Amino acid sequence: MLMILMISTSGQAQRKQSVKVEANKGLHVYAVDEDSETEINLSRDTTLPAIHEQKDSFPVEQEDTVVIGRWRIIHRESSHGTSRTDIYRVPKPANQLVFTHWFAYDFGWNNYDDRSAYAGLADVDPNVKVYDYSAQGLYTFAPRPMSDPVSSSTFSLIPEKSVNVDIWIFRQQRFLRNKRLGIEYGLGLWMNNFRYRNNITYVNAGGHTMVIVDSVNFKKNKLFTEYLTVPLFICVHLSGEGDRGFQLKAGANFGYLFKSRTKQISEARGKVKVNDNFNLSTFRIAPELVLAWHSWSFYANYSLTPLHQYGVKQYPYAFGIRFNGF
Fold first, then answer.
1. pTM of the predicted model, to two decimals?
2. How far apart are alpha carbons 173 and 233 in whole angstroms?
3. What is the three-class DSSP state of 247?
4. Distance (Å, rounded) from C-alpha 203 to C-alpha 201?
5. In the chain, is it the N or the C terminus that has fewer CB atoms within a 10 Å radius of its CB?
């Protein structure tokens, strides 16, 4: 769109002067005379939304507006029975320092680093119960005959079926004025599926959780955990402006156990779901490293908190791809 306003002035020079307005990749205003052209930059924002011409003969009786983030949907109806719907996106301010992303989600894989005290099981007392991470605590959590003691293979996972799916209600970035360094925080649900390879079952005994080797052959055997989580990160922009370009983020996820269950499928028992805390850690802290690019991120995290409160000492980790939301 180009509009030129010719303004005649009187004076000694009697030069022609005008004002030129361009709306092409931004709004630009120029003061023009015969010798030079000076730009008066009223806006340095992104491309303006499409502008629809509206004639005076279109009297608007009703106008409905729907706002979704920076998107605007405007529906107009006239007394002549005609209607029109305009959809456009409001550009971000050039000096914006806060960026909010709604409903981001992760998809990846999880496993755990097993540091349980398997080596000390030969010296445990079968009649003593201890609720810690020692070999005696491991025997309390997963009792087995000394001729066939529990080992790391007992809790081995099927890696390709042990998935990590997270849903972030919102994630917000707040940058300093140089727009290169900032913080990110949010709220979401951090979910892990641990798909066991062997036929083990979680049971409650005297108010405490135990893991036994079951006699049933399971087609599916998994433990599901869900933590209400607050992420807190430091963000560094490597390229681009705003929330675009490459970013490097380092921080941690702070989670509170919200839900957990086991799910087993077998021909003998059918589908069985059990909801319980299964001796899981109530709180989890997991440092995370993220490489972000526009709408996508690659993440990897490692929990500093063991999966269970006693017995096995397993530190979960996960990696995958994050869609940064809307």
1. 0.72
2. 9
3. strand
4. 6
5. N
